[in-house]
Write a structure and sequence with these properties.
alpha/beta; five-stranded mixed sheet; 8 helices
Amino acid sequence: SGLYLWDATRAIVRRESAGADTVAIHSLYRPNARNWQESAGYLRDAIQFLSDYLWPYPYPVMSMVEGIVAGGMEYPMLTAINGPLDAAGLFALTVHETAHMWFPMLVGSNERRYAWQDEGLASFLTDLAIRARNPDRNPGRSTQHAYLNDVEAGGEVELMRHADLYPDYSSFAAASYTKASMLLHTLNALLGDEVFRRALREYGARWSFRHPQPHDFWNTFEDVAGRDLDWFWSPWF
């Protein structure tokens, strides 16, 4: 059927220059799509959480569409999501795809060369959003277990590898999603929440609408932390 339902709401984003501002939120889905009745609210919450943790979402609208792709795929101000997801899974995937509005839509890293620069960050931010929504959950621990499972299955490959050169998709996903997210959780624990968050925001301030390389990410964190972290980057990345 070509029939879609259309839900709409608004997100409140606080901008330093203009105070509170609104972002129009749209969700379009087929009537039989499971759990999508709450999707507009999930998208609103994702925009508000990420705007608060990172920096304000800069655009006037954000939309999500059910169907079209397998899993999720991000585009500027739009994401398409599909698959048999329960409510928790739909919320998590909504946050993940929305996080791509910051990485790489604003901070324009090269996903083909260094997928961890956006997929890893999106996965890490999704864990934070889940924990903020459900304080009893520890998605970071789940990410660690997923990474260890990848290692035990022989799927671990270094992160600094072109996407076309991974032996298979599972190795690409292990490096780009679970391993990268696990390392960001580790770095957050190492530096502390306040320093880590300040460094991530500084990375955005320096590299929004530009094209950073991995060393730009590492250098920004070392500058903000005031620490030499080569001992951490070199063996892990």
